[in-house]
Amino acid sequence: MSSNKEINPASSARGSELASNFTVSLNFDKRLYKQDILVSIAHAKMLGKQEIISDEDSKLIVSGLIKIQKEIESDKFPWDEKLEDIHMNIESRLFEIIGNQAGKLHTARSRNDQVATDIRLWIKDACINLIENSKKLQLSLLSLAKNNLNVSLPGYTHLQKAQPILLSHHFLAYFEMFQRDIERWKKTYNSADVMPLGSGAISGVPYNIDRKYVAEELGFSFISNNSIDAVSDRDFIVEFISASSICMSHLSKLSEEIVIWSSDEFNFISLSDEYTSGSSIMPQKRNPDFAELIRGKTGRVYGDLIGILTVLKGLPLSYNRDLQEDKESTFDAYDTTLACIKSANGIVKNLIINDKIMKTSAEKGFILATDIADYLTKKGLPFRQSHIIMTKLSNHCKKLGKDLSEISVEEYKSISKFFSDDVKNISVNQSINSREIKGGTSLNQIKNAIKNANITINQKWPK
Ligand code: ARG
Fold this sequence. Notes:
Structural class: mainly alpha
Helix content: 55-70%
Radius of gyration: 31 Å
Number of strands: 8
Number of domains: 3
Bound molecules: arginine
CATH superfamily of the largest domain: Fumarase/aspartase (Central domain)
Shape: elongated
Number of helices: 18
Order of helices and strands: HHHHHHEEHEHEHHEEEHHEHHHHHH
Strand content: 5-15%
């Protein structure tokens, strides 16, 4: 079909023959093609239903848009940078395919409410995807917790041995962090789940449109209350990158522990070859590159967050072209976080646990010192006094170069008359299982925690 060159936005949109490279966003907003077409189809159907355009034109436009989607997906779409962005590329192609009726699609809308709607749809999908992949990571952590129920290791504070814990308890700590990330993406999803379309450029549109119908077609739960806010609001993007940044902080902690634990000094875990690489010069080395890269890429996502916050700072109402800068940070934060979650899952799934080394490490040193202090306290001593006795005891050990486990009952008794033979019953296992309170590391509590984690992970969302 032939089209009138005057009407096609390819020739008239900017009043100059070429868009300068500087304003072009096509190279990155191409990613919104699906959302843009969905939004246009819903809008065209509504225009037909409301008799703002004829039924015939509405159907013609929809068929053209479907054709365009097929072209894009089969790599046959004639992308044109001169048309600046995804919206103009699709609209201009529609002219080429169906002729001048294409000009009716942009009735009662503006690129301002269009792009805001597109990106909200995109963010909703992105949240679902991140949540699904985080759940896979949670499942891997959960199976490590289930399969290593009897493995104890030192728990650390200040990276100094503190108290013995179960390895499962340690992995379940990460389960909790990722669960909070999931909850944050769910909240972000809700923030994005508001449809701006109908806001027009800024003030609404002077047509009898049916916003509720379009929202239902697109799967939005709400429609925006204020057209000025709707075209300028990008809070949901800040929330999205913020939630992703927090997730990255969790992934970076996990990665850091993987790096430390797989070092020769700790040797608590071994990594599968798939997630390490050899050194080009030192043949004995296997470097934990994947974990290191996750740790490093955390910086990128934080950068994306600062980027979007800075773009939004001080913008006057309502739409400003600055807002075009929302997309690259969004896409980068998503791509990076998703890739890191997937890599973390791969590492965790293939971890080899050196349980004997962990166990031996938990048994050595002064890790039971708090338990011995608690023992004295339970015999009636104020805890602070028990603490003083323990300091004496550990000085005694250090002088002799002995571990607490190597001290005889007589030596204990010589330090304090509150010690009796049962002090020798204090052990790593006994210590762990004495933490029989909700949230504690006892085996019973861990079994319960695993049950609860199973329930959490099987919650269906969105309904
Ligand atoms: N590429 C633009 C963006 O991402 C689309 C909206 C342009 N609107 C306008 N009034 N120039 O924000």
